[in-house]
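Below is how a single chain appears once it has passed through the pipeline. First comes the sequence as given, then the structure the pipeline wrote out for it. We keep one example in the README because the format questions we get most often are answered faster by looking than by reading.
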Amino acid sequence: MWFKNLRLYRLTAPFTLPAEDLEDRLAQQTFRPCAKMEFASYGWVPPLGRSTSALCHAVNGRLLVCARKEEKIMPATLITELLADKVAEIQEQQMRNVVRREREALRDEIVDQLLPQALTRSKLTYAYVSPRDGWLVVDTASLAAAEALLGLLRQSLGSLAVVPPVVKEAPASVFTGWLKEAMPAELTLGSECELHDPGEEGGVVRCRRQDLFADEIQAHLAAGKQVVRLAITWRERLSLILGDDLSVKRLRFEDVVQEQRDNVEGDDEAAQFDADFALMTLELTDFLPQLMGLFGGEDAAAYQASAEAA
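Resulting structure:
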């Protein structure tokens, strides 16, 4: 159980629900396959897989959950082709044009005909709540997928007091300062970054496998571009792509962490899952506060205002 991407959310109120009670709440929104005339279905599934039944898995006080989304595959090109055939048939047989409203009705009819036979695809999204540290962490690169999981969790719980992390210093400005001056001692610079011109129609420069301290990059910075995404390694333990929204992509646990894993292998698949999850969350528990500290720390006043507004 190793997360590959992180969408971070800060709990703005204590999360006091025991694992047993959380299980009961999640059971009200369990996943079911799409019905014949449904485009999509979304609900909770056991994070340990189909051979288990628990919807909430607790390890060292962290609560792991998993949401499954299933959706019908409706190729737009197929619908367009069938609609064109239907319109051509009407024009030939009835000798008239098909107006826009009728086209839309025909399209809806085609979709209704295809929907019951459509293939489906599904995707799992994992997340864990760490009540003692005040974090909710979602394993996805997609903001939409993270927000969908939060929405489902709110439906299950009735409410959920979380917000994206708010730091005192703008990450893009901090990133840019690192490349202009020097990296913090605990970070090693990677070979990938993305720079944006802050103007309304500003350019975008994406760099891969390059020396980011090179003159070419420095020229872009001197022209006013800001770094909005940056590859870094933290203490030779985690490597990642960090965005200016504090999202983490392509998270990798380095050899020193994997060596620890080899020393704590479980006796069976379930025990190994727990060992991996415990090690991963321990690393992230150390990393996240230091990550926030790189940007001047978190803005407690902003969290307070959010909690009062809720």
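The chain is about 40% helix and 25% strand.

See the next section for the split statistics.
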